[in-house]
Design a protein that fits this description.
Elements lengths: L1 H17 L33 H17 L4 H10 L4 H10 L2 H9 L10 H5 L6 H9 L17 H12 L1 H7 L6 H15 L2 H10 L5 H21 L16 H8 L13 H24 L1 H8 L5
Length: about 300
């Protein structure tokens, strides 16, 4: 009798699993998504609704494209959205549990060149977060990232993903990491430990294949242990209202968040210094050319030519 009841229970579970009600995947923050049907209308500007099958194809395709060319920011963004799973819901819960995070969710600030006054940040005192952020942005290797969200169905979860992306430079700044492949991989492991977004782990696990053996060994010997310990124990950074902390001392913020510096990294020369050097060389070349034009030899050859 017990065997018969167990068999009937198994059959009921199988029928339920194959029914339309349960035939879905949790891949992009949507609890139940049908393989073949999808929302008929976009939920927000730029939203591209996908069913579970399309989402799976997009996830696999974007993963291969990202591995082939890590510079494809659009493919990395698509991979992050299509594999987000329940991580965005957990991040939203963390924001809702924090007064600061709740205000971020309610006000939905955006980080871009129109909302951040860089000139004002440059006037802040040394040691402030705003000044440190501007200094970091002047790195010549810095590049804009893709922040528009397309494949997350829930508008609020889409904003959580957008906030994570737009704050990426803040994570670099607060962790004192420059923009290079080694530091970017270290930050990806840190982000996975702190945010739990699967794409960050995927990027870290496969991105190191682009490194030589010496750099790869240092990554896993020094950076990854720091990233996992620091990121895992640090305050949830998704809850931080960065725009309200420009004047705060960056070291005080790091202490508040439980963040300590990673192993020393090689920083590129600040963009301002590179521009100064370029302008200095151009000025020297210009003055040299003007001196040659004003020299007596040049004037003599001009006024006493063969046809004068």
């Amino acid at each position: 009798m017990a065997t018969l009841q167990k068999g009937l229970k198994t059959n009921r579970l199988l029928r339920s699993a194959l029914s339309a009600r349960y035939f879905g995947l949790v891949l992009n923050g949507t609890p139940s998504r049908s393989f073949f049907s999808k929302p008929s209308e976009p939920a927000y500007p730029g939203h591209y609704p996908l069913n579970a099958l399309e989402n799976a194809f997009m996830a696999v395709g974007s993963a291969f494209a990202s591995l082939r060319d890590p510079r494809r920011g659009d493919m990395i963004a698509a991979l992050g959205e299509t594999t987000a799973g329940s991580s965005l819901s957990h991040l939203r819960d963390a924001m809702l549990s924090s007064p600061e995070g709740r205000r971020v969710l309610r006000e939905r600030p955006s980080v871009n060149s129109e909302t951040v006054d860089m000139d004002a940040l440059r006037t802040l005192p040394e040691g402030s977060f705003g000044r440190a952020y501007v200094t970091w942005l002047e790195s010549p290797a810095h590049a804009d990232c893709f922040t528009q969200v397309h494949y997350i169905d829930d508008p609020e979860l889409a904003y959580v993903m957008k906030r994570y992306r737009e704050s990426h430079d803040f994570y670099h700044c607060i962790c004192n990491l420059p923009v290079n492949v080694d530091s970017e991989l270290a930050l990806k492991f840190f982000e996975y430990a702190n945010f739990g977004i699967p794409m960050t782990l995927i990027s870290g696990l496969f991105g190191h294949l682009k490194l030589d053996s010496v750099r790869r060994a240092r990554l896993f010997r020094e950076y990854v242990p720091w990233a996992m310990r620091c990121g895992g124990s640090a305050h949830p950074l998704i809850t931080v209202y960065w725009e309200e902390r420009w004047t705060q001392n960056v070291e005080v913020m790091k202490k508040e968040f439980g963040i300590w510096d990673p192993p020393a990294a090689v920083w590129p020369a600040p963009l301002s210094e590179a521009l100064k050097e370029k302008r200095r060389r151009a000025k020297v070349a210009r003055e040299k050319a003007e001196a040659e034009l004003d020299s007596p030899v040049t004037q003599s050859s001009t006024s006493h030519g063969p046809f004068s």
